[in-house]
Amino acid sequence: xxxxxxxxxxxxxxxxxxxxxxxxxxxxxxxxxxxxxxxxxxxxxxxxxxxxxxxxxxxxxxxxxxxxxxxxxxxxxxxxxxxxxxxxxxxxxxxxxxxxxxxxxxxxxxxxxxxxxxxxxxxxxxxxxxxxxxxxxxxxxxxxxxxxxxxxxxxxxxxxxxxxxxxxxxxxxxxxxxxxxxxxxxxxxxxxxxxxxxxxxxxxxxxxxxxxxxxxxxxxxxxxxxxxxxxxxxxxxxxxxxxxxxxxxxxxxxxxxxxxxxxxxxxxxxxxxxxxxxxxxxxxxxxxxxxxxxxxxxxxxxxxxxxxxxxxxxxxxxxxxxxxxxxxxxxxxxxxxxxxxxxxxxxxxxxxxxxxxxxxxxxxxxxxxxxxxxxxxxxxxxxxxxxxxxxxxxxxxx
Length: 398
Fold this sequence. Notes:
By secondary structure, the chain is an alpha+beta fold. The chain folds into 3 domains: 8-86, no CATH class; 125-234, Butyryl-CoA Dehydrogenase, subunit A, domain 2; 250-363, Butyryl-CoA Dehydrogenase, subunit A, domain 3 (Up-down Bundle), CATH 1.20.140. Helices cover 39% and strands 13% of the residues. It has helices spanning 8-16, 38-49, 69-79, 91-104, 107-118, 233-249, 265-272, 279-309, 315-337, 347-354, 365-376; strands at residues 124-127, 143-147, 150-158, 168-174, 185-191, 197-202, 211-222, 226-227. A 4-stranded mixed β-sheet has the order 1-4-5-8. The chain has a 4-stranded antiparallel β-sheet with strand order 2-3-7-6, with no helix packed on it. Helix 1 (8-16) packs across helix 3 (69-79), helix 9 packs across helix 10 (347-354) and helix 9 runs antiparallel to helix 11 (365-376).
């Protein structure tokens, strides 16, 4: 562990030995769109593992460098200057599971899983949503029944991204149906290679096959793979979703600004191509630019709040809403400016087809607005007629 935090110059000097500088004109993938390149991401993580550059806040024994908040920010800023692999396949492990294990996992679980997450040798997926439990996630009904020192899991999940190639799944299960739905849930780590786990890919409109449906038929899971306390699954879910929203809301989709023009590269490309000659196109482009700028400011504020508090809060929902609005405005306008060619294959076409999913993944826009209304603005919650009813008495459970 370094005796003191590294300066920005020292961080760049170290990364210069490992990575190539990023081409400012090159565009990256958007949440893995069009790519499932596991090898490149794993090689990249292994390259950064020894120095703890990918997860600098983690303890050194797990692939971090025990960095303080300031050094973490400087490292993140520095990495933006270099060529990086598409880490979408590894995002659940790095951004969601890892922080949960550090906060709520046992020492044995941390020793078992964290290093393999940091170096990319094992991929995780998040098994939350079910056919009847999406936005109302507490309605999850995949059952976990105790059998001696093990649990027998039976049920199904859907929209499980990375399920087709994940080694482990963070799985929300119903361990007690006699209590209200939010209290009878427990979190487990399930072996996705188990013969009792069947994974079926779901093809998206943009051609990606990131999402899967998962069928669990009597999978035996040892109690040592239970994450957190029995019945504490909902609080773990809320914490994990906060990390997810902070991750999505923490990205200013659309990249940085061109050093010469001071404008986002996509806006400069539209101008250079003559797409902004008409007043209507210019007005729509300026609206997209304003949303982009507001998104950048919201991302910066959310990052500062998270750094100060040490954990993501409900502000992440507001940041996610801003990121989604900015991304969709740019994607739709880019397709329109390309004319009929915008409906054909190509980068803009993929962004256009990916854009609708941004309002769904990581929690719908409607859920995010409820969180902002209730937890930030202090507005009264919507009526919930099943809040005090035991899960077994709900019509859904029968």
